[in-house]
Amino acid sequence: MKYPKLRELREAIKALIKGPYTSKFPSVPHKPSPGFRGKPTPSDDDCIACGACAEVCPVGAIEVTDDLDSKPPSRRIKWRYDVCIFCGQCERYCSTEKGVRLTEEFDLAAFDRKSVFSEIKKELLVCGSCGEVIGPKSQVLWLARKLGPKAYGNALLFSMLQKEAEIVSEVPFEKSARMERTGLFTILCPKCKHSTLIYDEYRKK
Questions:
Q1: What span, in angstroms and rounded, lies between the C-alpha atoms of 108 and 85?
Q2: What's the pLDDT tens digit per position in 27-68?
Q3: What's the whole-model pTM score?
Q4: Which of 22, 170, 180, 204 matches a 20 to 30 Å C-alpha distance to 64?
Q5: Strands, E, within 18-148: which ranges?
Q6: Selection from 147, 50, 170 nearest residue 98 by Cα
Q7: What CATH number labels 35-124?
């Protein structure tokens, strides 16, 4: 019993000299230690709205909603902090590695839990023929820049780069049952692009 008593006495003396170990929060702001996992905050510039964070979120705290009726069509990604467990998976598996970051903010108390959230809204690309969602415009441009010169081997990426540089405008496209090769110069989903190539290659003259 001798040694435990001496240890307790040593800790008591240290507490008298250095002061209490506890902080005075909330009257005094608390500074979290390095590596603290706090509020995940999305970046409007670096988030490409790909939805990878929502796929890996273990509790479903990240919601992805596509609004095809808006002009232009848009995708909204919403981080719900009332459900979030601050595991850091969204930051770890972010496609751009900068789209969402865990901060040191932890005091998220509110009277209405539905008001505690962050969201990002990005423009969507839809197929000019069938209207299916291709993906966020920001994601396609990010992919094109990442590929560099290799992006010019893909018709969609080539068209997006030309439009972004304001070299060409979007080619007018009329929906019809007959797809021709000229349709490749507009925004098409992989299925419609495949149909266009097959029809143009094997059509009867």
A1: 12
A2: 888 888 888 999 999 999 999 999 999 999 999 999 999 999
A3: 0.74
A4: 170
A5: 40-42, 62-67, 74-80, 100-102, 117-126, 133-136
A6: 50
A7: 3.30.70.3270
